[in-house]
Write a structure and sequence with these properties.
Layout: E1 27-30, E2 33-36, H1 40-55
Length: 65
Amino acid sequence: MADELRIEECVNAVCPWSGDPVRADSLTLYRGRVVGFCNTGCRDKFAKATALFDENIGSDGKIDR
């Protein structure tokens, strides 16, 4: 998927985890937006964290727990 994503479409210039500049090989799609990271480890950490969060949000937008 990252090969299809373009850094020019990225909504951020710095990694949300480290604050370092984003790289073209460390992009992901989240809620229809391209989000960048400084490395694939930060990208994968984000994917895991958001997946856990998203699966616990109910249809009313509140956390089910």
